[in-house]
């Protein structure tokens, strides 16, 4: 369970090196198999009858925040930095937060 989190933390320190970032993200996503299976089975443990409804509600909330994050980042950093600095900075901060959440959940 710590594998994806550690991988994301290391990615945040690679700078904008494409090869290291892709390799570490691939490792992190590969290691998320165990985490995702535990996450998905949790809905069945809570309520087998309504597992589909619970899954759709939690996915809806997660996707709403995923859609709002770039919009909010764009409003905060409007015309302050170059697009490359913005993309790398936002990706670094998001990955750090994801890694912290993964570590806290584990």
Give the DSSP E fraction (strand runs of 2 or more residues).
under 5%
Helix content: over 70%
Output the structural class. mainly alpha
String of helices and strands: HHHH
How many distinct beta strands?
A: 0
From the spread of the alpha carbons, the general shape counts as: flat
Characterize the biggest β-sheet. none
Number of helices: 4
Any key phrases for this structure?
mainly alpha, flat, 84% helix, 106 residues, 4 helices
Would you give an account of this structure?
- With 106 residues, the chain is mainly α.
- It has helices spanning 2-12, 18-46, 51-76, 83-105.
- The longest helix is centred in the first third of the chain and has 29 residues, at 18-46.
- The protein is flat, with a radius of gyration of 16 Å.
- The N and C termini lie close together (6 Å).
- The mean pLDDT is 80.
Short description, anyone?
This protein has 106 residues and is mostly helical. Helices cover 84% and strands 0% of the residues.
SSE arrangement:
Layout: H1 2-12, H2 18-46, H3 51-76, H4 83-105
């Amino acid at each position: 369970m710590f594998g994806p989190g550690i991988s994301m933390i290391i990615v945040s320190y690679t700078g904008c090196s494409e090869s290291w970032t892709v390799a570490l993200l691939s490792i992190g996503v590969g290691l998320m198999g165990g985490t995702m299976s535990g996450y998905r089975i949790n809905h069945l443990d809570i309520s087998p009858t309504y597992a589909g409804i619970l899954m759709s509600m939690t996915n809806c909330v997660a996707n709403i925040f995923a859609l709002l994050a770039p919009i909010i980042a764009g409003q905060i950093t409007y015309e302050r930095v170059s697009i490359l600095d913005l993309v790398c900075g936002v990706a670094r901060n998001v990955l750090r937060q994801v890694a912290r959440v993964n570590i806290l959940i584990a």
